[in-house]
């Protein structure tokens, strides 16, 4: 009986540990409220490729655009109809530098945002957690949100996300915040 109980506790402990390593999500509104209340105590990072931002829009509420994945214009994926995306090898170092610029440590709150929240927002947050950053979250549904499931606008990103929640954004890029390698 003790052996079974010990095995159960070990199993639960490992499961708990694994889920504790995953980044948690925030809504766009929760993130905006945090930026308004404690923006100097956190780092808000747009992790999209700057070319993507140029065509979709930007919010000046972010501290910095540091791409997690960059489009590799030398590798076109014909089956997916897009260029390959490669991990920015300097991502973690650039995030750490942005924290230092604000006088913050790797324990400060970092919030990442991509286009939809799932393909780069959460992975970038998990990536930072794996590299010793301790308080990283991501915006659920990202900047542009999810596609409509039905109707005339099916597939269009008009559901949830930063833009669709009515939070401040524009098509104008802030040259002091946008990634320029």
TrEMBL record:
All copies of domain Rhodanese, residue ranges: 38-155
InterPro entries: Rhodanese-like_dom, Rhodanese-like_dom_sf
SUPFAM superfamilies associated with the record: Rhodanese/Cell cycle control phosphatase
Keyword Lipoprotein: no
Signal sequence range: 1-20
Alphabetically ordered keywords of this record: Signal
Name of one Pfam family that matches: Rhodanese
Keyword presence, ATP-binding: no
Source organism superkingdom: Bacteria
Full protein name: Rhodanese-like domain-containing protein
Source organism of this protein record: Marinobacter aromaticivorans
